[in-house]
Amino acid sequence: MAKQNYHVILFPFPAHGHITPHLALQARLHQYHPNLTITLVSTPRNIASIRSSLPPTSPLQLHSLPFCPADYGLLSDSESTEDLPSGQFGTFLFALESVCPAFDHFITETSKQSSVCIISDMLLGWTLDVAHKHHAFHSSFMGTSAFGGAVFLSVMMNLPHNHSDSDPLTLPEYPGVLVPRSQLAAHILTASQTDPSTVLTQKLLSTLYKTDALLVNTTEYLDPIGICMLKKTHNLPVIPIGPLVGSSYSSIPTSERESNIFEWLDLHPGASVLYISFGSQDSIQKSQMMELALGLEASGRPFIWVIRPPLGYNAKDEFKDEWLPDGFEKRMKEENRGFFVHGWAPQIAILSHKSIGAFLSHCGWNSVLESLNSGVPIIGWPLQAEQPFNVTLLVDLGVCVEVARGKLETSEVKKGKVADTIEVVMGDNEKGQDMREKANKISEMMKETWKGESCSSAKGLAELLKLIKRVTNN
Ligand code: UDP
């Protein structure tokens, strides 16, 4: 007999860029459906940092799943992709499956009281088996754009790509979409169908074709082609429930100096400062950092740069002067032109400051949504995964210019192009003006998406609730 109370279990992939939109989804679910019980599950360290960031009045419940990364040869504190040295992502995916018994136990207990709805990250496909076992509703959460996610999925499910010389690649599911090979990360270009982590990734992603509903952190006016693409290839409800822009939680404390960012920003005129960040876990080559720095200097514009150690260094390494051109940081500080963050930046607040005029970004989807939500145009430097396809979408929307692509030694970055692109996007010219207008328009539309009961994303949540009731009552 179906139970009348519903318990939503959110299970994000343990990485900042995945946890943040799940938290934003929880906030929207509680706003529009206050009677739902919602629990977010994750590994112990992630649960502890989320707990410390929640307001005391938050109705969100948290549940910790025991996790022993050391059993898989990972460092014992590797509970998030931010902690991983490069090359260990595949091992981390395998290790995460080890929380399955604890997750299963939690669902067993929860199902005794309520009808359960699991909303799990697209990279946690094994949760579907647990849902089936307990006759629970299951939906996969795609935290990418629909366009980026659809292209990425097609690329990943049609491996290998090293068998032909055709450039661009054509995608069997989407004949109209051409993918230049230069948009694919090296490990995808060389991946074989027998490589264990590729096999696992394909298995996890195949859940996206079998789940009860596919939730996508996007919206019709931003991403109409991508939504159509997913609807064409996925014979199940595809529900845009975005844009979900959170009040970003931080697992890394912001230092006192970094909290002076806003005083520094206040000193600059409106839309004059460039913000630069490559997300919560990625980085570029030292040689690329050098060229970027020289381009910034040549541009003459003020900037905030969130500097993570370049590739090849440990993510937790202290900043080293040798990563930047001689005397660069000192010169930029003396001229009051550069603010350097060697750690964690309060990104959402920075992007909403009136002095920010553009965002040089790796185009992770959260960064994109946060930028557009604040009406800030983007200078794209995609590094991996679906990021290059996000750039294609953004360029089509008229809010982005690509400045560089990739993080290999061979991925070319030229200081002249950096300076010229900054000038195009931030300068007083027709293209820059047009990009700013379009970004502002999108910002207005994004705010409309969540206004009132009949707004489009609230309708998406209502559709989800209806499906949960239908599936769990059968
Ligand atoms: N972020 C932040 N401060 C930082 C770096 C990242 O607040 O110094 C946040 C950013 O606001 C965004 C998330 O981390 O919400 C990054 O997600 P995104 O999808 O852009 O990229 P990822 O890190 O997953 O590659």
TrEMBL record:
Keyword list, A-Z: Glycosyltransferase, Transferase
Coiled-coil annotated residue ranges, if any: none
Protein name: Glycosyltransferase
GO MF annotation list: UDP-glucosyltransferase activity
InterPro entries tied to this protein: UDP_glucos_trans, UDP_glycos_trans_CS
EC number: 2.4.1.-
Family assignment from sequence similarity: Belongs to the UDP-glycosyltransferase family.
